[in-house]
TrEMBL record, chains A, B, C, D:
PROSITE patterns: ACT, PREPHENATE_DEHYDR_1, PREPHENATE_DEHYDR_2, PREPHENATE_DEHYDR_3. GO terms for molecular function: prephenate dehydratase activity. InterPro entries: ACT-like_dom_sf, ACT_dom, Chor_mutase/pphenate_deHydtase, Preph_deHydtase, Preph_deHydtase_CS. Residues 4-185 form the Prephenate dehydratase domain. Residues 200-277 form the ACT domain. This is Prephenate dehydratase. Pfam families: ACT, PDT. PANTHER family: PREPHENATE DEHYDRATASE P PROTEIN (PTHR21022), PREPHENATE DEHYDRATASE-RELATED (PTHR21022:SF19). It comes from Lipingzhangella rawalii. Keywords: Amino-acid biosynthesis, Aromatic amino acid biosynthesis, Lyase, Phenylalanine biosynthesis. It catalyses: prephenate + H(+) = 3-phenylpyruvate + CO2 + H2O.
Amino acid sequence: MSSPAAFLGPEGTFTDAALYVLRPDLTSEQRLACDGVEAVFEAVRSGAAAVGVVPLENSVEGGVTATTAELLNGDPLLITGEVTLDVRFSLVAREGTHLADVKHVVTHPHAQAQCRGWLGRTLPQAQTLPAASTAAAAQIVAEPGSGYDAAISAPIAGERYGLRELATDIGDRSAAATRFVLLSPPGPLPEPTGHDRTSLAAFLADDHPGALAELLNQFSVRDVNLTRLESRPTGDRLGNYCFVIDAEGHVVESRLGEALMGIRRSCRDVRFLGSYPRGDASVEIPTLLPRRTATDTDFHRAQEWLERIRAGGVS
Amino acid sequence: MSSPAAFLGPEGTFTDAALYVLRPDLTSEQRLACDGVEAVFEAVRSGAAAVGVVPLENSVEGGVTATTAELLNGDPLLITGEVTLDVRFSLVAREGTHLADVKHVVTHPHAQAQCRGWLGRTLPQAQTLPAASTAAAAQIVAEPGSGYDAAISAPIAGERYGLRELATDIGDRSAAATRFVLLSPPGPLPEPTGHDRTSLAAFLADDHPGALAELLNQFSVRDVNLTRLESRPTGDRLGNYCFVIDAEGHVVESRLGEALMGIRRSCRDVRFLGSYPRGDASVEIPTLLPRRTATDTDFHRAQEWLERIRAGGVS
Amino acid sequence: MSSPAAFLGPEGTFTDAALYVLRPDLTSEQRLACDGVEAVFEAVRSGAAAVGVVPLENSVEGGVTATTAELLNGDPLLITGEVTLDVRFSLVAREGTHLADVKHVVTHPHAQAQCRGWLGRTLPQAQTLPAASTAAAAQIVAEPGSGYDAAISAPIAGERYGLRELATDIGDRSAAATRFVLLSPPGPLPEPTGHDRTSLAAFLADDHPGALAELLNQFSVRDVNLTRLESRPTGDRLGNYCFVIDAEGHVVESRLGEALMGIRRSCRDVRFLGSYPRGDASVEIPTLLPRRTATDTDFHRAQEWLERIRAGGVS
Amino acid sequence: MSSPAAFLGPEGTFTDAALYVLRPDLTSEQRLACDGVEAVFEAVRSGAAAVGVVPLENSVEGGVTATTAELLNGDPLLITGEVTLDVRFSLVAREGTHLADVKHVVTHPHAQAQCRGWLGRTLPQAQTLPAASTAAAAQIVAEPGSGYDAAISAPIAGERYGLRELATDIGDRSAAATRFVLLSPPGPLPEPTGHDRTSLAAFLADDHPGALAELLNQFSVRDVNLTRLESRPTGDRLGNYCFVIDAEGHVVESRLGEALMGIRRSCRDVRFLGSYPRGDASVEIPTLLPRRTATDTDFHRAQEWLERIRAGGVS
């Protein structure tokens, strides 16, 4: 049990659920709930945890902004895995509570906002009060003598705190997916699977007009699709920008390797954030810059041709 | 008092402070604290409020993801103003409390994470507990007989709830700026000031390779700089993307007008989000795609030249 | 007969044939053979001729380089028409000469090179001597007592000088097409036909990195296809470049008009060379930058949308 | 004397002068005047000559179109050298002829056009007649009993045919430079000199929108400047295009090697035309796509960084 996995706690968050999917092998003793995204990073950086899990995109519980900030600053960690989960809310209560009994609901304000329609229709008389997270809400309800009748939370929070589901999937719109990433200290990368993603941050040079277009071209001339692109002020001073980028493929592939070298040459700095299996193995076909496939075989043939040319051949 | 201004509450949030900067003319009766970003949008859409204020970027209290989602979906609102505030945390307490007395601190987990260094050095024995927002934390502390000794919050929260500052600017790093926007129903745009920003969302056509490069070109050929660029899945199905964009200039300018027409022609859809005075009036010179200036005079001269050419002239 | 048409002479050149196609209405008195491309331009500039015809691309008799130089320098003329002719060579001789009699052939060296295979197979014993043009060769053969038995020339040269065709289409490879243009003084442009071409020369600014990419973008964001692109040193000093461009469409169309205005704003100088019906009305589909169609209706709708947006509307 | 050098003849052409600059070591027996550009290519392809010289750009005697056609078609040859000469015309005559005696001038029509001003001012009464080339004109004048008094030609033609210069540099405008290239059979490339040029032809894929922009990007992301760019119909059918390109640098450099591999992967076909020392060693700084320098050291450092990253490092 020397190497636990840290996650954005408390127990029962959507991040806890993500860790369960990413590392089903772990015992509950090996799962370390942390108070805040920063604490998860700190646990992995200090060696207190071997890996960590945090939300990266679209979380209902915050964490996105903090996660990106931590990835870009401080000692580098690598993303070594990801999973995308649908955000589905349940109403959970202590054993014996019936829906008709629910007068006081507790949850995170974002969850409240997303379940407003259901609450208005189903529990028009109930009062809803805020908690620091949906998991904290479930925890509060689970306490003996709690003044709250039910919590809106992830289904997993109900299980963690021994509560019963009074209603499931009560969000007003079809669930927004949230993407969680697995963090590891620098070390061997995950093996390429043929369905990978590579993340990086490119810091543009100050005095370089057209820098963004060049950055995109570095990918497109190697037929690398992007799946996410986001500008961020770098914070060190106003007017400086970096781009956080997700691209298809693994850094051991020629197309990604060449693209990263090009970015390294043309940007002020670049931080490699990892190559890892895509969590959305089945469906997504990103359409940002689709082109041809460019396999290692394609690159190898072009290399052979170049060598013939350099030796005085003509084709 | 028929047209209040809605803001992300409760009273004492950073958003409350932003509203004070944006609309200092309002009385406290004209300020409507809302429970969640969605509620602010709803208040403006329904006419319950004349305007609303929400955080758009880098907030410590969440709201960014929700704000963008609301801007892109539902009945359109226009951004008619913005302000960027430094996020500075204070430790606030009831009158008579001294720093040495503080055993129980309450705040939002993000704020706690950002003040961890100060807390460890200054209040190593204190326990910190979560609240739904920094303002809610101040509110809790202000209650008579509260079990909490102090809250970490925005300075304004201390004022709103009659608390005293025990310490100021206690964040571990120099403050991250948060950008807030003023929302209005569709209607006359703010007059151009010569230092404006235009926001929009462009929905790429599915089957259009190179669509992102074309989108950027629509701006660059008109010498329009971008100040923010962010990809977002559109949510209707996987693999569809839109880009949320901030650009320099006002839509009444020729350069912006022509660029928007080009995007309208080439994208599946485009949602105009507003033209408004920039809040960072003094310093920022965005460097994404800097080029020349392209004033209305430049466009007018080119138009005159075109008319001469079309009439059979040669220059 | 006050306004003759000048052409690159002497009578019987391929240019003479092109003039016949472009202006079949002219009498022979109205056709003015000029000695050199420069002389054709001079005739139109001075008013000695109302129009002129010169080869622009791929001529076997030279003229391309000179034509471009004249289009770019000196008083501007407009291209008002074009025709593309296959270059087909005939062996022409005086009445009574038979193929077996031919011992001395005269022609332009380019024509000789292109008929070398046929000459070697059919007239292995014949000697071939150079003339200044294929038409001059025919003229020489037509002189009574000429020392030459036959000329290689355009079929039209045989007709012009009363010679008989001994063999037709004797070029070694399938005929290269040559493109000829009709020149006019500045004045009303030809009406758009829906199948037009626009020519221009863009002079890049010295100190403008990425200028070529920007130039191409000015066209591509308006969905204008290019059909020809050629860099040329401007001659005023080394390292300065201009681009000679042919684009689909007519300058009265919105897509062309907006693109030209963009180039006018971003380049050091631009010379408009004309909008005119395409000579290759049937088949060619240029594939340089194909995109969508962008009709005047498309531009008009985008303009209407912009006006609604500027008035405070949202779509 | 087993390996002569072929050139576009007859003796005394500007091409002859270019050969003298490129290969001053050759004896007159080693110089093989050819009748047409095609004949020069044929001599090198067949082994009748070890090398050949032809004009490539801006020749007053034609050859440009033919040269490009031969470079693109038939058995490949490599460009292994180049020189750029100013085109300066002289009036040359037999010994004993004085300027006042000149009544009949012979020259190529292009040369006549370019000396028209001087002829009109200096020899207003003289008649000018055409020859197949300026060198042929000098040859004609040199014949005993020639009916012509003087020829307009390159200075070298006077020397070759034993004529005397009556006037020098008589062209109307400052001389246009003509660029000549040295052709060799496939074999070892010239060593890189640090000031080289690489030529190639890229054949775009039919069905590939935006192909030209991608082609240019392949160079620009590797910081390779272009010095010439020209579209050409490929001839096999209408609507197919290739681009003839000159780029800075030598194919043994990383930046050129990587760019060529990218083009090889993305185009239907690419023909390498050679890497060779630039003839304009002193002044020209092409400004098409200037960027940074990208030396082999820059590429090597990026490669080392990539290897560290792939091994699990972070910078």
